Each structure stands twice: as structure tokens, then as C-alpha cells.
């Protein structure tokens, strides 16, 4: 297992370099810069930054320096990340929280009574959760909960009341995903020989479910965390935009419109590195959690 | 009584009767038809496509005609979906937007399949160190969000039209397809008929083109409907952020964006195109489930 983890770790380095190279190469292709519109002279420091070489940029990323912003004076990409990123992380974690809180129990209950009314209801909800575009969910929630009933604020990110609707909207797809996934793995686990053995030796159903079934069914929930991170990042672009959450998903779109390309590049590289490392952690966790995969993967 | 007839008697069947011929696809088709949910989804899906194609041709309303006197109308007989802020008929425009949304959806899905098949086939067929390198690369990229890269791609190309949208949406979405194709090729490679083909001297392109790739077709058909929802939603997200196709052309996403500012007074402008997206995505998901059960009965969910 150690060999697998080490190999996996080593492979991360060229992939990160390649992603930076791809982003860097893409950025070089973009025509124009923010100064062309205003016909201001390009400041020397910024000109130097525009002409930065890939090697220097990688060195910067490695030391945690993403360079200056092209549009905002006296601000670096690091400042922007420091300011906006915590909000995005909080939003993402809260969304993940909703998903675990509602999605996992729904999947467990559905699997314990397959083809029951609850099962059908949960799966219908899951299917609809996948299909509804999150801007519709956000708009409907604002329309009813905030405007019509006046229960929660429409937008902003200050008090806990502000955080309920955005995180719920963002958590809907992961919730639907968990409900489906947990139901599927639970049903599969319930048919395993060791569950039959447990039943045969007279264990109570509650104990079988909590000790034998649940523990083994929740492994895919851990491994699903990495692809779900992608969902959450993509979703945050829309949700932060609608609910005016000061996070990097919203800032990314602003930066693209303002042609603040060093910010766009810095944020792209940052998000990619986060996803790559999440994959790494999940792969390693998977081998630790499920002994059966150790043999196959070394 | 001949030997075969005796054998037939013993087995309880008429050995003389011809064996019912049924190909994999006929079997799959029959299994698919038995799944009522999937059949209904396919019917609604087809109906929506036909609606999008036909409505703009037969509609009495010009989809781009501005008429402020009838702006913000709710649904009525002459305007079943109401009108938008410019008084344009939303029934006709939704169909027109559907053409673009569905068109981009399928075009980008096929682009994803194309890239995925090439990458996956090379990785699986060549094997060895190259396979290892290509797959470790995919391992690391798995789950990379496509949206930032799509936005970047759009920023680079500059103008946003149908095909730039297709490029933007497929550029960072093919990782899963590539992995699936590679897995298929690896499994198929071990089959006896592939070994036999190699043994009688079939060249590598013959093995790949005649024995391996055609057998991945089933998985690819499923993949079309697995990828389509993501692509259609992706297009909608980009359009909703104002990075979509330029007016007067519209997709469901850009129509939803049109209704964004007036959702309090006139929610129908944002709700109708959004529900079109939701209906299509829901159908595609059901079709994908049905196809998976039909084409690969082993993975059928209980």
C-alpha cells in the first residue's frame, strides 16, 4: 500500500505542472489586456507580469505567490484569494453538510425498505434534484421564502440566516447524489454473505445494519467526495452570483469580464490544485478504508 | 429416431426447431421496451425535439419581433408560455432556444465521445507504460470542474457562437468517457476472439477497428445520455452568467437569464426555459438508466 501511495504522490507533481502549463498556455492566447480599453499606459510592473515566463510562474505558485492583479491597483491575487476564498469554503462545507444531513439518511431509509413509498419518493426527489438547474432552485427559493413569506434575506453573506438558502441550493445536487449512491451500495451490501452470516448467527437487525452494513456502504460516500467537489465548485459560480456571496466563484466571472487575467489564471490554477489534491486524499483514504483494494492497487 | 431428436426429447425441447436468432441489440431493444419509465422518457424526449424543430416553422409569431404593447403577458391561448420583456412570444422562442440548447448538447457530447474514444482506445490498446502514464494523469484530473476551463476557453476565442460553445463545453469534460472506453478495451482485449484474430495475423488496426471498437458501442450509447445532461446544464450555466450565445439568438440558458431581473413580478420568464432544461435533463437521465439496464443486464440495479 505504501508503494501505491508513494507512486500516487509522485504522479501528482507532473499533473500539477501540466495543468499550470495548460492554463498558462491558454492565457497567452488571449487577445488584449485590461489597459487596451482605457488607453492607459501599461505600468512597467504589470508589463513584466504579462511577459512572465512559465518557469517563473511555477516558481511563484510553488511559493504561494500568484502575482499581482491587473485591474485592482495595489492588490495581488493572493489578497483576493485570502479575502474571498474563506467564504467559498464555508459555502461549500455547508452545502456538503446539507447533503450528508439529508441525503445519506434518505438513501439508508430507502434501501431498508426498497420499493416502498418512501423509496419511490426519495428516488423521485433525487432525480428531480439532478435535473433542476440550480438558478431555478435559487430563484424559486428567493421568490417564495424571501419575497413572499419574508422568512430569510434574499442575498448577502453576513448572518447565519443569509447562509441557509445559498448552501441549501448548492447542496441539492450532492444531496440527490448521496441519496442515490447510499441506497445503491446499501442494497448491494445487504446481499453480501457476511450480512447473511450475521443474520444467521442471530444478530439483531439494528446491529447488523449499523455495524455491518452501514460501515461498508459509506465507503463510496467518501470516494464520491472528490467528484462532488467539482460539482460544488461549478455550482458555486452560479449560486454565489445569484445570492451575492463574496466568494471566488462570483469573483471569477467578474475577473473574466474585467479581463483581469492574472486573477483568472491564479484562481483556475488554485481550483485545479485543490481538486487534484482532493483526488489524491480520496484515493489514499479509499485504500485505507477498503482493505480489498489494497492488493489490487499496489 | 435420430440422435438429435432423442437428445431433444430428453431435454424436453424440440431440437429440430431453429434456434431463435436474436442479436445483442434486439435483446437490448426488447429489454428497453419493458422498462416503462425509460420508454416514457424517450417519448417525451423525442416529443420535445420535434416540438423544437417544428414550432418555429409553423408558429404565427415572429420569435424576434419586438412588441412592447404585449410585453410581460402571462400564459394565454395566443401565447401559451406568455411573452417576455420585449413582447416576444415565449412558446416560439422556447422552441428556438431548445434547438440551440439541444444542438449544442449533442454536438458537445459527440465531441466528448470523440476525444474520450481516442484517448481511451490508445491507452487501453497500447497498454504498458503509456497506459499507466495516461491513466495516472486521468486519476489526478478526475472531477476537475469544467466551468472555469469553459469560461477560459470562451475568453480566448472571444466571440461566442454555436461551435465555440461546443469547444468550451467539451474541453474539460471528457475524462470520465476516456476512462470508461479504456476499461472496455482492456476487458475486450482478453477475449478469445481477439486472441484468435491476432493469432491468424490480423493487423492491429483490424483488431482495434473490427473487434474492439464496435464492441464498445453499447457503452458509448449509454455515455451519450450520461453526458448530455451535464453539457446542457453547462451551457445553461454559462449563458446564465452572461457568457453564452449572443442575442438575438437564444438558448434556454440565455432565456432564463433574460428573466433574471424581473423574477419577482414575472416569474414565468425564468421558470419556463428552466423547466424545459429540467424536463430534458430528467428524460436523458431516465433514458441513460434504461439503456444501461437494457445493454448491460449484469449491472441492473435491484
What is the tally of helical segments of chain B? 13
Radius of gyration of chain B over alpha carbons?
25 Å
Largest interface: A-B, 60 and 47 residues
Structural class of chain B: mainly alpha
Instruction: Give the fraction of residues assigned to helices of chain A.
Output: over 70%
Which range best describes the helical content of chain B: under 10%, 10-25%, 25-40%, 40-55%, 55-70% or over 70%? 55-70%
Number of strands of chain A: 0
Using only C-alpha atoms, the radius of gyration of chain A works out to 23 Å
Gap between N and C termini of chain B, in Å? 46 Å
Spans of chain A of at least 5 consecutive residues whose pLDDT stays below 50 are none
SSE sequence of chain B, one letter per element = HHHHHHHHHHHHH
Question: How many beta-strand elements of chain B?
Answer: 0
What is the CATH superfamily label of chain B? Answer: MetI-like
In terms of quaternary structure, what is this? heterodimer
Give the N-to-C terminal Cα separation of chain A: 6 Å
Low-confidence stretches of chain B: none
Structural domain tally of chain B: 1
Average pLDDT level of chain A:
82
How is this structure best described in words?
The complex is a heterodimer of chains A (298) and B (302). Chain A is an all-alpha fold. In chain A, 79% of the residues lie in helices and 0% in strands. The termini of chain A are close together. Chain A is flat, with a radius of gyration of 23 Å. The model of chain A has no long low-confidence stretch (mean pLDDT 82). Chain A has 14 helices and no strands. Chain A has helices spanning 2-29, 34-38, 44-50, 54-62, 77-112, 117-131, 134-148, 160-190, 193-200, 205-217, 219-242, 248-257, 261-289, 292-297. In chain A, helix 7 (134-148) packs across helix 8, helix 7 (134-148) crosses helix 11 (219-242) and helix 12 (248-257) packs antiparallel against helix 13 (261-289). Chain B has 302 residues and is mainly alpha-helical. Chain B has a single domain, classed as MetI-like fold (Orthogonal Bundle), CATH 1.10.3720. In chain B, 68% of the residues lie in helices and 0% in strands. Chain B has helices at residues 3-11, 24-34, 36-58, 90-126, 128-141, 146-157, 162-170, 175-189, 192-199, 204-212, 217-240, 252-258, 268-295. In chain B, helix 2 crosses helix 13 (268-295). Chain B is elongated. The two termini of chain B are 46 Å apart. The interface between A and B is large, with 60 and 47 residues.
Amino acid at each position: 500500500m505504501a508503494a501505491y501511495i508513494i507512486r500516487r504522490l509522485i504522479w501528482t507533481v507532473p499533473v500539477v505542472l501540466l495543468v499550470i502549463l495548460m492554463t498558462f498556455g491558454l492565457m497567452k492566447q488571449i487577445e488584449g489586456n485590461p489597459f487596451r480599453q482605457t488607453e492607459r499606459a501599461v505600468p512597467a510592473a504589470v508589463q513584466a507580469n504579462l511577459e512572465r515566463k512559465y518557469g517563473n510562474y511555477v516558481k511563484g505558485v510553488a511559493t504561494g505567490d500568484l502575482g499581482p492583479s491587473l485591474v485592482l491597483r495595489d492588490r495581488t491575487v493572493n489578497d483576493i484569494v485570502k479575502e474571498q476564498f474563506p467564504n467559498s469554503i464555508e459555502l461549500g462545507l455547508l452545502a456538503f453538510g446539507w447533503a450528508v444531513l439529508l441525503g445519506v439518511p434518505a438513501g439508508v431509509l430507502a434501501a431498508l425498505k426498497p420499493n416502498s413509498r418512501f423509496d419511490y419518493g426519495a428516488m423521485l426527489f433525487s432525480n428531480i434534484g439532478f435535473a433542476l438547474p440550480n438558478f431555478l432552485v435559487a430563484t424559486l427559493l428567493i421568490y417564495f421564502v424571501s419575497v413572499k413569506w419574508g422568512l430569510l434575506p434574499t442575498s448577502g453573506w453576513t448572518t447565519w440566516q443569509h447562509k441557509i438558502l445559498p448552501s441549501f441550493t448548492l447542496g441539492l445536487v450532492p444531496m440527490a447524489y448521496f441519496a442515490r449512491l447510499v441506497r445503491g451500495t446499501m442494497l448491494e451490501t445487504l446481499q453480501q454473505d457476511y450480512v447473511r452470516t450475521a443474520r444467521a448467527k442471530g444478530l439483531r437487525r439494528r446491529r447488523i445494519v449499523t455495524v455491518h452494513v452501514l460501515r461498508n456502504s459509506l465507503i463510496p460516500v467518501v470516494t464520491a467526495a472528490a467528484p462532488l467537489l467539482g460539482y460544488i465548485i461549478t455550482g458555486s459560480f452560479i449560486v454565489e452570483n445569484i445570492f451575492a456571496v463574496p466568494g471566488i466563484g462570483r469573483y471569477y466571472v467578474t475577473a473574466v469580464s474585467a479581463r483581469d487575467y492574472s486573477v483568472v489564471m491564479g484562481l483556475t490554477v488554485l481550483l485545479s490544485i485543490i481538486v487534484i489534491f482532493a483526488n489524491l486524499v480520496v484515493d489514499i483514504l479509499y485504500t485505507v478504508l477498503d482493505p480489498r483494494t489494497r492488493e489490487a492497487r499496489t | 429416431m435420430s440422435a438429435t431428436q432423442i437428445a431433444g426429447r430428453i431435454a424436453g425441447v424440440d431440437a429440430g426447431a431453429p434456434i431463435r436468432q436474436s442479436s445483442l441489440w434486439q435483446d437490448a431493444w426488447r429489454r428497453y421496451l419493458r422498462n416503462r419509465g425509460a420508454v416514457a422518457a424517450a417519448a417525451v424526449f423525442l416529443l420535445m425535439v420535434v416540438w423544437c424543430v417544428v414550432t418555429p416553422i409553423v408558429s404565427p409569431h415572429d420569435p424576434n419581433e419586438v412588441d412592447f404593447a404585449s410585453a410581460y403577458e402571462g400564459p394565454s391561448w395566443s401565447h401559451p408560455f406568455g411573452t417576455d420583456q420585449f413582447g416576444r412570444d415565449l412558446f416560439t422562442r422556447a422552441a428556438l432556444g431548445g434547438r440551440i440548447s439541444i444542438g449544442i448538447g449533442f454536438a458537445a457530447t459527440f465531441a466528448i465521445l470523440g476525444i474520450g474514444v481516442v484517448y481511451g482506445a490508445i491507452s487501453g490498446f497500447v497498454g504498458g507504460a503509456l497506459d499507466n502514464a495516461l491513466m495516472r494523469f486521468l486519476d489526478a484530473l478526475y472531477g476537475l470542474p469544467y466551468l472555469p476551463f469553459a469560461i477560459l476557453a470562451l475568453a480566448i476565442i472571444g466571440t461566442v457562437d454555436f461551435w465555440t460553445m461546443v469547444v468550451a463545453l467539451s474541453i474539460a469534460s471528457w475524462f470520465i468517457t476516456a476512462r470508461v472506453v479504456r476499461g472496455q478495451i482492456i476487458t475486450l482485449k482478453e477475449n478469445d476472439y481477439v486472441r484468435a484474430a491476432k493469432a491468424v495475423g490480423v493487423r492491429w488496426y483490424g483488431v482495434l477497428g473490427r473487434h474492439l471498437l464496435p464492441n464498445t458501442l453499447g457503452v458509448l450509447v449509454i455515455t451519450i445520455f450520461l453526458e448530455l445532461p451535464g453539457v446542457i446544464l453547462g451551457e445553461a450555466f454559462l449563458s446564465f452568467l452572461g457568457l453564452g450565445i449572443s442575442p438575438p439568438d437564444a438558448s434556454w440558458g440565455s432565456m432564463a437569464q433574460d428573466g433574471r431581473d424581473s423574477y419577482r413580478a414575472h416569474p414565468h420568464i425564468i421558470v419556463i426555459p428552466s423547466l424545459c432544461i429540467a424536463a430534458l435533463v430528467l428524460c436523458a437521465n431516465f433514458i441513460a438508466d434504461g439503456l444501461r439496464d437494457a445493454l448491460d443486464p449484469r449491472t441492473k440495479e435491484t
